[in-house]
Amino acid sequence: MNTKALIGVLVFLLFITWSIKGFAKTAEATTTVNIRSAPSTSAKILGVFPKGFKAQVLTSSGGWVKISYDGIVGYVKADYIKLTKDAKVSNVVKSSATSKQTVAQMPTATVLKDNARVRSDKSTSSKILKTLSKGSKVYILSREQNGWIKVKTADGVVGYMAYYLLKMSSTSSTKMSSRGGYDRENEVAYNGTLADRILEFAKNFLGVRYRYGGSSPSTGFDCSGFVQYVFRNFGIRLERTAADMAASNGVRISPSELKPGDLVFFDTDGGRNYINHVGIYIGNGQYIHASSARRCVTISNLTSKYGTSFMMAKRVIR
């Protein structure tokens, strides 16, 4: 092969590589789906791809898609995901190419706190691109992994913001309730809007398998690992075990004062002398938790077996 031909081949390969990187495919789960070791429903389950979350697409064939999600590489059924093409990375940080008509059609959100940070990636250690004041408006581009929202500011900066910093507009696909309140009876502050966001996020993991010691949706949760994971995504730090949460986190409330987002604690051994289980109250006598009995994240009634071993409740959303 002569030099010109070799250069031509190299240029072609570089173009292909650039194109793949610039327009990589992304998969978004339309329902929580198992990640398997091979393209077969009988293959080993490596983890879970939760509803509403995104993953990198590696290959697709025969009704199966190979993805990379949260450190796991495996296969998911194509029926349970939707594929999109990401824009070039170089366009992510700032772009003025969006037309007024397109911007007008985007869902919006209001910033809830001063000095709210727009970051370059889905991590609190990533670069801060911009800080926004309370009441600022942003456009919602997509919902990302682990409680992050991809946004576009009024002056065209595109980046990521933590979910709890934003109140979605009624036109947003991630619509939230606008109710809030204050518990005047016992003078314990209660942020109903934040509670709604936390519970919506928690419900994404319904069906994720139970795993003792687990603290990740890709590998499974135990009860306290699930609760800690959910609240951590909204800037609320909790202890790792149910007993330590009960001892150290939040303000104790009576069962009659329970509101959505409060923590409920149990002694499932029946002795009623030690707390070994925790869940998140969702209202109407129900709570969401990682159940060792049902082997997954599920919703139960306080009148169920766990409910008969109810010990106490605490409020951590303030």
UniProtKB/TrEMBL annotation:
Transmembrane segments: none annotated. Residues 192-317 form the NlpC/P60 domain. Pfam families: NLPC_P60, SH3_3. Keywords: Hydrolase, Protease, Thiol protease. Residues 24-85, 106-169 form the SH3b domain. It comes from the Bacteria. Gene3D superfamilies: endopeptidase domain like (from Nostoc punctiforme), SH3 Domains. Belongs to the peptidase C40 family. PANTHER family: MUREIN DD-ENDOPEPTIDASE MEPH-RELATED (PTHR47053). This is C40 family peptidase. It comes from Caldicellulosiruptor naganoensis.
